[in-house]
Amino acid sequence: MFDEQPPAPSVAQISEREPSSERKSRLAIETRGLIRRFGDVAAVAGIDLEVPEGSFYGFLGPNGAGKSTTIKCLTGLLDPTRGSMRILGLDPVADGVEIKRRVGVVPEDLALFERLTGEENLAFVGKVHGLSRQLIEQRTADLFTVLQLERSAASSLVADYSHGMRKKVALAAALISAPRLLFLDEPFEGIDAVTSHQIKVLLQDFVTRGGTIFLTSHVLDIVERLVDHVAIIQHGRLVAQGPVDGLSTPDGEGERRSLEDIFLDALGAEGHDPNRIEWLTG
Amino acid sequence: MAHRVNLVGPIVRTLRAFLWLRWRLMVNGLVGGRGRDAMAFFAAWAGVLVRGILGLLLLGAIVALSLVAAVLAGKLAGPAGLASEAAILGFRVVLGVLSVVLVLFPLMTRSGGDLAAAQRLRLLPVRDRRLDQLDMVGAFADPWLMAISPIPLVVTAVLWWHGRWAGGAVALVGGLLMLASLALASTVTRRFVGWVLRDRRRAQLAALTLVFGVVVLSASAIRLERLLKVEGSGVVKPEESEVEGSGVVKPEEKVGVEGEAEAPAHQAAPKQPLDEARDLRKISRHFPAGLQVLPSELFVRALVYSLEGTYGLTLVLLVALAALPAMLLLVARRLWRATVGSPGVSGRARVGSLRLASLDRFPGLTPAATAVAWVQVCTAVRSLYGKLALAMPTVAMLIIVVPLQAALAGEENVFLRSLQGPPLALGAVAFAILGIQPFALNQFAADGEGLARQLLVPLRSRDLILGKAIGLGVLVGLSTLVGILATVASVGRGSVAVWLAILLTALPVYLLMAPLSFILSLYFPKAMDLDGLGHKSKPHQLAALLGLVAVAGVLSLIFSLVGLGIGFLGTPWWTVFAILVLALGAAVAALVFLHYAAPVLPARTEAILAAIRER
User: Fold this and answer.
1) Residue from B31, B202, B384, B457 to probe the interface with A (highest A Cβ count within 10 Å)
2) Best mutation site among A88, A115, A121, A129 for testing chain B: the one with the most B CBs within 10 Å?
3) Which residues in chain A are contacts of B613 at CB distance < 8 A?
4) Which pLDDT tens digits describe chain A residue by residue (282 residues)?
């Protein structure tokens, strides 16, 4: 009665088949004139994104700039008001389910079932992706080890987890299907330093093997050490986009600028003088 | 000049700030955040409309109770100087019932979220004691207390109108003390519930203990009453023989409300004041002793004694009435410190071994739809509300069956005797369907953020809808089965075909309800707290109302069919067959409906997610 499809090829399988240069020339994410309105307010006001396949892409911007709304549009949680998108070469409207088979997401609100254990949340995702029982159990064990999730957490409901533990489970849920493209909305927020290091190593390895990561974070130090491409959004519009090297030294020579400098320059933020608030500082 | 401490200013300022906060939360709830569509606005305003109707009903109840109080007070102020038995009984019953409801209502309606909100307010520069006081004052906004509040004032006014000055003064003072006691008792219950709900494991244990405790207590009370009747029938005093010696009462001598046999109309004679005083004492005897510490009881007794001129006893009762709020105040403060003023506890609940990974698939479903069904069952059975919903048919049937068996013991009437048997078990089906309504009528938003996970994974709309329908069906089936088994164990008779017919009744009822539940879930989503007991654990008011009407209609239809097949035609196996055919037809209709309605789901997911995040 119901048709079933085999799981989508994993990053490792893609990596074996294609050289890195070929993948880089293709776009994992491409948007044209993407607009998302809430009433009269345009949270995303026409952005053209080009995320090369196999890149570690940092999507930066101040609070309320439209980062999370963009990710929600790209992952199918929100419908764009206007514009076109292609994810891994597929059209989200026509091939929504097919895209989801190849994509892993850690959304802003983590999207976990409160009344399932961490292990059961992963089992649900694995089942929907068509993974076998053995594969689900093996991958769950691996992810729990790498993300340093306590085994005791396996028998506790997510409702009882700390914020950091929830984030780890959400990351594990995004990874268990071995996706080709990862959307990570603030993955390092609330994570301890040791696990944060483990995650960074894991993500870098994922990209080295041909995966693509689209990441938002407010921690520019972390982003600077990880990403090779960056886009900066303000008021729903892109104000800068390109390889980090190209943005650091625009004319190809001179002193390399930090990501923080690039960020502040792009936003035109000269910084406000705190002494102006006399009632606070005076 | 000595510095004057201004106490009123800060209290008024805080009160104004909180009133403004309430107002803004209400307005913002109607205007809504981004992501709301026209349907969400309609749902919000429909909720306000339902609340408005309830408000009008409350207003009507206040007016009606005030009128009743005025009439009863007029009788109390009669010229005989002794209180009319009917008026006293009326006061005691009305005030007693409302008082018990007022105090016990928070057990069924309060959510742990109230205290979470209070804890946020502690970050503000407002004294703890002031927050505590404002919370207590807030108890006067309880509709049940608002319904009672005018009664003492009306009684006072009527008594003074009749020149009963002392009685009026006692009504005023005693009435205000009664209202204070009830408000504080309600606060104590609410805070106690909040303290219990802070720990999910403790909350679930407490709720289940309470529910099953009610069954055990009601069963024990019935048994005890029957035992006492048997033992007491031969030794009762002559004046009490009509009341307690039920075995010797003739059919034409019906027992009256006050426990006294009514004489035939042609023999009735006007009662003397002395008889009425005896009536008062009799009424007291027939009220359980435990209830006599109720504030309403103390109030009415003080009032009656003052009208009789027994001022010493009146004073004693008024002192007792004044001591009650003082004691409750201490308990309320202690509970405030124990909950709001102390860090929360995390009750990590261990969960059973319902392992999804080892679960393959339901017949005819994809693994993805099976996983959705499994999540639906887990979400229900691991929540407080879900546990109660699952236990509801069993508990309700036991509560009904045990007293009914006691009441109908030795009954000759065939129809009444038949009520003890299998037809009673149809109630289990009704309770199972009603118990599952909060999940069925809000099936997408009830998953909370889990819905977003279901939208992020490669899950087709039809798998999501079908999985949910199967999961909810499993829950209805489980709770019906256990409820019917409990009834079979209690009743212990009836043919297999009859019991089977009743069990299968759940199938067409659920299948006929499924499409409506799906549609209402799409258009009236609401954030839910399934571990609370208050309005946060209920679906949208309009969805609940429409769902209730539909359930009543469907149950009437199916139960009529069962009644016709078993009761009148006496063909239980044909009834089983007819129910199966009906279920098959309903299943086909539901599948066709869901097939065409499935595309609506993606169009509504954004609004549902917005509703979930507005919690």
Assistant:
1) B457
2) A115
3) 109
4) 334 455 555 555 555 555 556 656 689 999 999 999 988 889 999 999 999 999 999 999 988 899 999 999 999 889 899 999 999 999 988 898 999 999 999 998 899 998 899 999 999 999 999 999 899 999 999 999 888 887 666 778 888 888 888 999 999 999 999 999 999 998 888 888 888 888 899 999 999 999 999 999 888 888 888 999 999 999 999 988 888 887 776 666 667 788 888 888 877 765 566 667 778 766
Q: Does residue A171 lie in a domain region?
A: yes
**Residue A282 is assigned to a structural domain of this protein:** no
ipTM of the complex model: 0.85
Question: Which B residues in the span 33-62 are in contact with A, Cβ-Cβ below 8 Å?
Answer: 34-35
Smallest Cβ–Cβ distance between B609 and the set A77, A129, A137 belongs to A77
Per the CB < 8 A criterion, the answer to whether A52 and A28 are in contact is: yes
**Sequence-separated (6 or more) residues with CB below 8 Å from residue B416:** B408
CATH label of the domain that carries residue A235: 3.40.50.300
Range of the domain at A143: 11-270
Strand partners, B599: none
CA distances from B11 to A25, B114, B332 (A): 68, 21, 20
Instruction: Tell me the helix, strand and coil percentages in chain B, rounded to 5.
Output: 75, 0, 25
- Is A102 among the domain residues? yes
Find the residue in B nearest to A36 (Cα): B35
* A1 found inside a domain: no
Q: How many domains does chain A have?
A: 1
CA distance B245 to B242: 6
